[in-house]
Protein backbone atom coordinates (compact mmCIF):
# COMPACT_ATOMS: atom_id res chain seq x y z
CA UNK A 1 0.00 0.00 0.00
CA UNK A 2 1.27 3.45 -0.90
CA UNK A 3 1.22 6.13 1.79
CA UNK A 4 -1.21 8.25 -0.23
CA UNK A 5 -3.79 5.47 0.01
CA UNK A 6 -4.13 6.03 3.74
CA UNK A 7 -7.03 8.13 4.99
CA UNK A 8 -6.53 11.68 6.26
CA UNK A 9 -6.60 10.71 9.95
CA UNK A 10 -3.78 8.20 9.45
CA UNK A 11 -1.73 10.70 7.47
CA UNK A 12 -2.17 13.36 10.16
CA UNK A 13 -0.98 10.83 12.72
CA UNK A 14 2.13 10.04 10.65
CA UNK A 15 2.89 13.74 10.14
CA UNK A 16 2.59 14.35 13.90
CA UNK A 17 5.78 12.33 14.51
CA UNK A 18 7.84 14.47 12.13
CA UNK A 19 9.65 17.76 12.80
CA UNK A 20 8.88 20.89 10.77
CA UNK A 21 11.49 20.29 8.07
CA UNK A 22 10.55 16.64 7.58
CA UNK A 23 6.89 17.57 7.27
CA UNK A 24 7.73 20.15 4.62
CA UNK A 25 9.88 17.70 2.64
CA UNK A 26 7.18 15.05 2.72
CA UNK A 27 4.55 17.59 1.65
CA UNK A 28 6.57 18.37 -1.48
CA UNK A 29 6.11 14.85 -2.83
CA UNK A 30 2.46 15.14 -3.85
CA UNK A 31 -0.61 17.33 -3.64
CA UNK A 32 -2.46 15.06 -1.20
CA UNK A 33 0.36 15.18 1.33
CA UNK A 34 0.60 18.94 0.85
CA UNK A 35 -3.06 19.19 1.89
CA UNK A 36 -2.29 17.25 5.06
CA UNK A 37 0.67 19.54 5.76
CA UNK A 38 -1.67 22.52 5.49
CA UNK A 39 -4.20 21.13 7.98
CA UNK A 40 -4.25 23.51 11.01
CA UNK A 41 -4.92 20.56 13.34
CA UNK A 42 -1.36 19.38 12.73
CA UNK A 43 0.18 22.50 14.25
CA UNK A 44 -0.56 22.50 17.98
CA UNK A 45 3.12 22.74 19.00
CA UNK A 46 6.05 24.66 17.53
CA UNK A 47 9.70 24.81 18.62
CA UNK A 48 12.27 27.13 17.04
CA UNK A 49 16.02 27.14 17.58
CA UNK A 50 17.25 29.60 14.96
CA UNK A 51 16.17 33.01 13.63
CA UNK A 52 16.14 31.56 10.12
CA UNK A 53 13.43 29.06 11.08
CA UNK A 54 10.94 31.84 11.76
CA UNK A 55 11.19 33.02 8.16
CA UNK A 56 10.73 29.66 6.46
CA UNK A 57 7.40 28.46 5.13
CA UNK A 58 7.70 25.09 6.86
CA UNK A 59 5.03 25.69 9.50
CA UNK A 60 1.50 27.09 9.90
CA UNK A 61 0.09 29.44 12.50
CA UNK A 62 -3.54 29.04 13.48
CA UNK A 63 -6.06 28.54 16.30
CA UNK A 64 -4.78 24.99 16.88
CA UNK A 65 -1.42 26.24 18.20
CA UNK A 66 -1.27 25.61 21.96
CA UNK A 67 2.45 25.50 22.78
CA UNK A 68 5.21 27.71 21.37
CA UNK A 69 8.91 27.84 22.24
CA UNK A 70 11.62 30.07 20.73
CA UNK A 71 14.97 29.20 22.30
CA UNK A 72 18.15 30.63 20.81
CA UNK A 73 21.45 29.47 22.26
CA UNK A 74 23.97 29.98 19.46
CA UNK A 75 26.94 32.23 20.16
CA UNK A 76 25.92 34.66 17.40
CA UNK A 77 22.41 35.09 18.76
CA UNK A 78 23.74 35.61 22.30
CA UNK A 79 25.31 38.83 21.04
CA UNK A 80 21.83 40.37 20.92
CA UNK A 81 21.65 40.15 24.71
CA UNK A 82 24.88 42.08 25.17
CA UNK A 83 24.64 45.76 26.07
CA UNK A 84 25.03 47.98 23.01
CA UNK A 85 28.09 49.81 24.27
CA UNK A 86 29.97 46.48 24.40
CA UNK A 87 29.24 45.52 20.78
CA UNK A 88 31.53 46.17 17.85
CA UNK A 89 30.14 47.45 14.53
CA UNK A 90 29.81 43.95 13.06
CA UNK A 91 27.83 42.73 16.06
CA UNK A 92 25.55 45.79 15.94
CA UNK A 93 24.79 45.18 12.26
CA UNK A 94 24.07 41.53 13.00
CA UNK A 95 21.69 42.42 15.83
CA UNK A 96 19.94 44.99 13.66
CA UNK A 97 18.97 42.22 11.25
CA UNK A 98 17.39 40.29 14.15
CA UNK A 99 15.70 43.27 15.74
CA UNK A 100 12.17 42.70 14.46
CA UNK A 101 12.37 38.99 13.64
CA UNK A 102 10.81 37.61 16.82
CA UNK A 103 8.57 40.60 17.50
CA UNK A 104 6.99 40.42 14.04
CA UNK A 105 6.52 36.68 14.42
CA UNK A 106 4.88 37.06 17.83
CA UNK A 107 2.57 39.71 16.41
CA UNK A 108 1.37 37.09 13.93
CA UNK A 109 0.86 34.71 16.85
CA UNK A 110 -1.27 37.36 18.58
CA UNK A 111 -3.48 37.67 15.50
CA UNK A 112 -3.74 34.00 14.56
CA UNK A 113 -3.32 31.90 17.72
CA UNK A 114 -5.85 32.99 20.36
CA UNK A 115 -5.81 29.56 22.05
CA UNK A 116 -2.12 29.59 22.98
CA UNK A 117 -1.54 27.92 26.36
CA UNK A 118 2.23 28.16 26.85
CA UNK A 119 4.99 30.42 25.56
CA UNK A 120 8.72 29.99 26.19
CA UNK A 121 11.25 32.59 25.01
CA UNK A 122 14.94 32.14 25.71
CA UNK A 123 17.73 34.38 24.51
CA UNK A 124 15.36 36.62 22.55
CA UNK A 125 17.16 39.89 23.14
CA UNK A 126 14.82 42.10 21.11
CA UNK A 127 11.48 41.05 22.62
CA UNK A 128 9.89 44.03 24.35
CA UNK A 129 7.34 44.59 27.11
CA UNK A 130 4.81 45.79 24.56
CA UNK A 131 5.12 42.53 22.66
CA UNK A 132 4.36 40.50 25.79
CA UNK A 133 1.50 42.84 26.65
CA UNK A 134 -0.12 42.20 23.27
CA UNK A 135 0.27 38.45 23.73
CA UNK A 136 -1.40 38.54 27.13
CA UNK A 137 -4.28 40.58 25.74
CA UNK A 138 -4.80 38.44 22.64
CA UNK A 139 -4.17 35.02 24.19
CA UNK A 140 -6.45 35.04 27.26
CA UNK A 141 -5.97 31.30 27.89
CA UNK A 142 -2.19 31.57 28.34
CA UNK A 143 -1.25 29.51 31.40
CA UNK A 144 2.54 29.41 31.21
CA UNK A 145 4.91 32.25 30.31
CA UNK A 146 8.61 31.45 30.57
CA UNK A 147 11.16 34.14 29.72
CA UNK A 148 14.89 33.56 30.03
CA UNK A 149 17.64 36.06 29.27
CA UNK A 150 15.24 38.42 27.50
CA UNK A 151 17.12 41.59 28.32
CA UNK A 152 14.52 44.16 27.25
CA UNK A 153 11.85 42.76 29.54
CA UNK A 154 11.20 45.09 32.49
CA UNK A 155 8.67 45.60 35.28
CA UNK A 156 6.16 46.70 32.63
CA UNK A 157 5.78 43.01 31.72
CA UNK A 158 5.10 42.21 35.38
CA UNK A 159 2.47 44.96 35.40
CA UNK A 160 0.87 43.42 32.29
CA UNK A 161 0.78 40.04 34.05
CA UNK A 162 -1.15 41.48 37.01
CA UNK A 163 -3.62 43.23 34.71
CA UNK A 164 -4.10 40.79 31.82
CA UNK A 165 -2.73 37.40 32.90
CA UNK A 166 -5.99 36.12 34.35
CA UNK A 167 -5.31 32.52 33.32
CA UNK A 168 -1.58 32.57 34.02
CA UNK A 169 -0.37 29.87 36.40
CA UNK A 170 3.40 29.89 35.76
CA UNK A 171 5.69 32.88 35.23
CA UNK A 172 9.46 32.59 34.80
CA UNK A 173 11.61 35.68 34.23
CA UNK A 174 15.02 34.12 34.76
CA UNK A 175 18.12 36.18 33.95
CA UNK A 176 16.03 39.14 32.81
CA UNK A 177 18.35 41.80 34.18
CA UNK A 178 15.93 44.73 33.96
CA UNK A 179 13.38 43.09 36.27
CA UNK A 180 13.43 44.58 39.78
CA UNK A 181 12.69 43.15 43.20
CA UNK A 182 9.88 45.68 43.66
CA UNK A 183 8.17 44.43 40.52
CA UNK A 184 8.46 40.81 41.64
CA UNK A 185 6.97 41.60 45.03
CA UNK A 186 3.93 43.23 43.43
CA UNK A 187 3.27 40.12 41.34
CA UNK A 188 3.51 37.98 44.48
CA UNK A 189 1.08 40.30 46.24
CA UNK A 190 -1.50 40.74 43.48
CA UNK A 191 -1.25 37.28 41.90
CA UNK A 192 -0.21 34.92 44.73
CA UNK A 193 -1.49 31.86 42.85
CA UNK A 194 1.13 32.27 40.09
CA UNK A 195 4.18 30.04 40.37
CA UNK A 196 6.80 32.78 40.04
CA UNK A 197 10.48 32.15 39.36
CA UNK A 198 13.07 34.84 38.73
CA UNK A 199 16.50 33.29 39.03
CA UNK A 200 19.18 35.97 39.10
CA UNK A 201 16.87 38.62 37.60
CA UNK A 202 16.62 41.17 40.40
CA UNK A 203 20.22 40.54 41.49
CA UNK A 204 21.78 41.28 38.10
CA UNK A 205 23.17 44.66 37.07
CA UNK A 206 20.52 46.40 34.93
CA UNK A 207 21.28 48.11 31.63
CA UNK A 208 22.96 51.46 32.12
CA UNK A 209 21.52 53.22 29.07
CA UNK A 210 20.52 56.88 29.63
CA UNK A 211 17.08 57.08 31.13
CA UNK A 212 16.78 53.32 31.69
CA UNK A 213 17.19 53.54 35.46
CA UNK A 214 14.56 56.30 35.66
CA UNK A 215 12.18 54.29 33.49
CA UNK A 216 12.51 51.25 35.74
CA UNK A 217 11.94 53.34 38.85
CA UNK A 218 8.77 54.82 37.35
CA UNK A 219 7.54 51.36 36.38
CA UNK A 220 8.11 50.07 39.91
CA UNK A 221 6.28 53.05 41.43
CA UNK A 222 3.37 52.50 39.06
CA UNK A 223 3.16 48.87 40.10
CA UNK A 224 3.09 49.84 43.77
CA UNK A 225 0.18 52.21 43.12
CA UNK A 226 -1.98 49.54 41.46
UniProtKB/TrEMBL annotation:
One of its GO terms (cellular component) is SCF ubiquitin ligase complex. Keywords: Leucine-rich repeat, Ubl conjugation pathway. Residues 9-46 form the F-box domain. InterPro entries: F-box-like_dom_sf, F-box_dom, Leu-rich_rpt_Cys-con_subtyp, LRR_dom_sf. Pfam families: F-box-like. SUPFAM superfamilies: F-box domain, RNI-like. This is FXL22 protein. It comes from Cettia cetti. The gene is Fbxl22.
